[in-house]
Write a structure and sequence with these properties.
Elements (H helix, E strand, L loop, with lengths): L3 E11 L5 E12 L4 E9 L4 E9 L5 E10 L2 E10 L3 E8 L4 E7 L5 E3 L21 E4 L2 E3 L13 E2 L2 E13 L2 E11 L5 E8 L6 E6 L4 E10 L1
Parallel strand pairs: 9-11
Antiparallel strand pairs: 1-2, 1-17, 2-3, 3-4, 4-5, 5-6, 6-7, 7-8, 10-13, 11-12, 13-14, 14-15, 15-16, 16-17
């Protein structure tokens, strides 16, 4: 018998008026050794972006590997596969001109990875100290597949370190139910607010709600099934 758990959930993308501008269905397998794989499809209606992400992390939410395919309408922007080791990040893929991309970066073990799937943004702060008295905590090194806010560019290896501030443990209501949550803010290196997020206060770290100032948009858990 397989020794794993499964989580299925959907995140709605909402503009500042509450109108739905996209969604992200997610399927996660959690294995007995603590590793997990998420399969997330970001569907952004107003910009016609579809991004498929298959992202594998270890028990501490540190990246192992990640597959990303990005389309705008029916045009493929990028297909890429990232691999993370203790000393390197490897990127192999195909760009929009159907040319092979092969990139290697020598670096310390990545603390986290910005795949641009909304569901995984709450994973960056998995290892910070959850005490308000700690104030701002740096998370580094973090890398990203794209330097665009919506991640819809040809994949490259970009450095994108963050700072995190634990606000409080709280209770939050979503269309999927009421949850005990962690409230955390992320800041860029210049101290501007990058994201404000709430996730489940448990090992699953399911995104419950998030605010993204760049687009003045909200992201809200709509459905959840834990198997």
């Amino acid at each position: 018998m397989l020794k794993h758990r499964e989580i299925k959930y959907t995140i709605n993308y909402l503009d500042n008026s509450g109108k739905k501008r996209g969604e992200e269905p997610c399927f996660v397998t959690l294995h007995s050794d603590g590793t997990r794989v998420i399969r997330a499809t970001s569907k952004i209606y107003d910009t016609e972006i579809i991004r498929d992400v298959v992202y594998n992390v270890d028990a501490k939410f540190k990246p192992i590997d990640c597959f990303i395919k990005i389309r705008k309408s029916e045009q493929i922007i990028s297909t890429s596969f990232f691999t993370f080791t203790d000393n390197n990040i490897y990127l192999k893929g195909i760009n929009s001109e159907n040319k092979i991309v092969n990139e290697t970066l020598e670096t310390n073990r990545a603390e986290s990875f910005i795949s641009h799937a909304v569901a995984t943004d709450v994973w960056h702060s998995a290892n910070i100290i959850k005490k308000k008295s700690k104030g701002i905590q740096k998370i580094f090194p973090i890398y990203s597949s794209s330097n665009l806010p919506n991640g819809a560019s040809e994949s490259k290896i970009h450095r994108w370190d963050l700072k995190a501030k634990f606000i409080k443990f709280t209770e939050i209501r979503t269309p999927a139910g009421i949850f005990e949550a962690e409230h955390i803010q992320y800041y860029e290196e210049d101290d501007s607010l990058w994201l404000e997020m709430w996730c489940t206060n448990d090992i699953d770290r399911i995104m419950l709600k998030m605010y993204y100032p760049v687009y003045d948009s909200y992201y809200l858990l709509n459905k959840l099934e834990r198997v």
